[in-house]
Specification:
Length: 337
Amino acid sequence: CGLFADTLALPSVTIDDHFFHRGGHSLLATRLISRIRTVWDTRVTIRDLFQSPTPALLAEHIAAGGGGNPLDTVLPIRAATGRDADTAPLFCVHAVSGVSWGYAGLLPHLGADRPLIALQARRLGGTEGAPGSIEEMADDYLAEIRKVQPHGPYHLLGWSFGGLVAHAVAARLEAAGEEVALLALLDSYPLPGGFRAPEIDGRHVLTALLGSRGESVPVRCADSVPDIAELAEKLRQSDPVLAGLEHAQAAAVVAAALDNLRMRYRYVPGVRFGGDALFFDATGTPAAQPGAAAWAPYVTGRIEEFAVDCEHARMTEAEPLRAVGEVLARRLRPARI
C-alpha cells in the first residue's frame, strides 16, 4: 500500500484501491513497477498491474509468480470478468509505436464495468506472423477481436496510426453484417491527395515515437538508415514510459515503428465505413484540414469533432485522455453481448 500511495502522491490507499481509479496512468504505472522490482526483486510487469490493479491483488499475483508479457498482441487493460463478462469492451488500437499501455488512462472515465482491451503490434513479438500492410493488420486484429467478442455491438478506438486500423476493422465488421456502435479516431488522418512518402531516417523514427522531443535527441543515424539498436537505447533514455523495457524489447518497439511507418505511407483506405465516427483533434498540432473533411471520403455517416488541448504526441497523457474519456463515457451505451 505504501508504494501505491507514494507513486500516486496520496496520503494512503487501502488494500482494495484500484491503481488506475485513484489517478494512475501509464507513466505512474511504470514508476510503480520499477519501485516494486527494486524493493521485492521480482519480474513484475505493467501487464501484471493491469491484471491485478489493487495492492492486495498485485501482492497475491507476485507471490504466485508475476512477469506477464507486456508486449502481447492482445492486452487486457481491464479484462471482462464476472458480472462484466457480457458488457461490450472498448477495443483500442496502438499508434505507430505498436504499444498500447497509454490507454490505461481511460479507465477512470469509462465506468467500472467497461472492459478495455488493447491491441498491440504483432511485430513486437518478432517477425513471424507480422503483417505486411494495414489491410493485413486489420484482418489480423479483426480475428483477435472476434475471439474476445464474437458478435456486436463493437466499440473501436485508435490513436494516430491506430485510427487507420480501427477504421479498416470497422468497415470489415460492417461488411460481415455486424454492428459497430462506436468508432473513435484520436487525431488520426488518412494521407492527403498527392502525398509523396519521405525517406525514413533515424530522426524520422525518433520523432514518430517521441514527437517534438525526438527532434533534439542526439543520434548518429539521424540522417541515415535507422540503426535499430542505437534508436532502442535512445528510446529507453528519452521515454519515461518505455524506459523500463529491456534492450531487446525496446528494439522490437523501434522495429515495429519502422514497419508501421512504411505501411502507413503507402496506405489509402480501400473501404468505406457506413456508420458514424467521433474525431478528436489535438489542437496543439495543427492539421492541413479538419478531421471530418479528411475522413469524409471514407466515412459515410456523421463525423463529430471534439477539440482536445494538447499536442498530437501527448494525446494519451492523463489530461487529454480525461477529455476523450468524458466524451466516450456519454457515447458508450450499456451494450450487452
